[in-house]
Amino acid sequence: MNHNAQDTQPEPNDIASRLQKANTQVSQICQASGVPGASIAIIHKGKLLHTYNHGYSDLENQIKTDSNTAYGIGSLTKAFIAAAIAKLVHAGHLTWHTPIKDLLPELNQDDSIITNLLTVTDILSHRCGLAGGAAMSFVFQGDGDMLLPKESLFTLFNHFPQLFPFRGGWSYFVWGYALAGLVIDRVTGKGLAQALRELVLSPLGMTSTGFDVDSLEGVAEPYAGLADGTAFHLSKRQVFRDTFFEASGGLFSSVKDLTTWAGAILDCISRPDESVLKDVPYILSNHAAIMNPSLNERSYGLGWIRTQLPGRVGLIGDNMDVWTLSEQPLLGDEHHPMQMIYHQGSTVGYYSHMALFPATESAVIVLTNSIALSDAADWISRTFTQALFDIDSNDYVKLAMEASKRYISLFENMATEIENMRDGKTPRLDTFAGRYVHSSQLFVVDLAVCDSRNKLALRFQGRDSQEYELRYLCEGVFEWVLGHDESKRRGRYNSVEMGCYLFRFRVDGGRVVSFTWAADGLRSDVFLKVGGLEDAAVAVR
User: Fold this and answer.
1) Which fold has domain 12-50+70-129+164-409?
2) In Å, what is the CA distance from 74 to each residue of 26, 56, 222, 340?
3) How many CB atoms lie within 10 A of CB 187?
4) Architecture of domain 422-530
5) Is the pLDDT confidence value at 451 over 80?
6) Rounded to 5 degrees, what are φ and ψ at 473?
7) Comma-separated ranges of CATH 2.40.128.50 domains in the chain
8) Which end of the chain is flanked by fewer CB atoms within 10 Å, N or C?
């Protein structure tokens, strides 16, 4: 295959006209979503068919995107991790069914079944049944800061609660890939970045892909989409190198490199003996059903989602937050049934999407440099899939606009609900001031009385960079709800679950002793008060 971005193959006129129309729709989707730049590549019948680069990688300095522009690819990283482990399996260092405890003896989960039976395939397919959402809030809140060191991985993992019985379902669980990255590190003894380079990237000639942003050229600046459609330049790029989530979402790459990657996977499906990749059929197989019941194929492989078109896609992206599954627009039509294997990626400042269509040796690759109003990379990918195969009649520009409006409404509705709950009382705030410690002893919350307003200053991990206003709501409950644009400017992932913003305080004998926080909107964690900060006066930004 020749996937050189500068050697695009001639296009049949009907496909060419549809792809050119899709190019114009990219700018409309980006404008509606607050995305300054996007890069797209299309492979069809095993050859690079089309590339398109929209807008700017650096809006302020008017640096245009091109096919060599590097973007954060978020969870597209997961497929690379699966491919690296496949090389280790092929070399005989482990098997897909090796128990994790044999590779990582620190694993000692509260559920002994998981400790004893959890395998490599389990952690790569999100079927272990553990809930780690609350811990995500302890590790990351915003502004690009990682709040816990990766050395605390097992202190957290070993005590995650059970969401469903082991192998009894599917739930997206990034912590499994944290273990997978550590497996690669331990087995090779070379560290994840070097091992991935030697096992996958270098053999494929992928020179603009890596975890170390400083070693890459032409990295797009990160932005966030505001309510009016403007792109806000984030002050800090989120980098996962040497953190929990390096293996889950830490890679940066370009569409030029990702055409090589997609081409190699498609090659391996039809010509496995000639490929540097190994066990691709196993990686792309159905390992866990997603969001049952479904009569059609909807499952997870290892770093990939399998879907039968026509079907509902975008299942792990932010667009799922604004429509129920049954309301999601169908991609494809009944006259063109086909298999689509895809994944989505998001990190603060970037959305990405890659889709494979094995039957026609096709791929659609989309990279963007904004955590947009809605998942613009998803809409752009659907637009080009529609154009490539001449399927369905959905207007993805209108859907992108509608999704953006719905997201803003979710934040507005949350703010309205909060105000309806407020009782107007003002308790003595100094009695709530102090340091509160989570039961893991890893995470602290400092509260101090502000010198300028009748509010508390909330600092996660005691950091000035992680300061938010905490306001009294009602009956011992305080809230720190953020508006849409405030959340985006702080470099945060979208979160409209109100429970994530509520602290419920407990008073014993007239003294504030603790608060509970449902950081994932589900289970409440307890934070015990261990000291006072009554003398601390801070000004909330």
Assistant:
1) Beta-lactamase (3.40.710)
2) 21, 20, 13, 20
3) 17
4) Beta Barrel (2.40)
5) no
6) -115, -65
7) 422-530
8) C
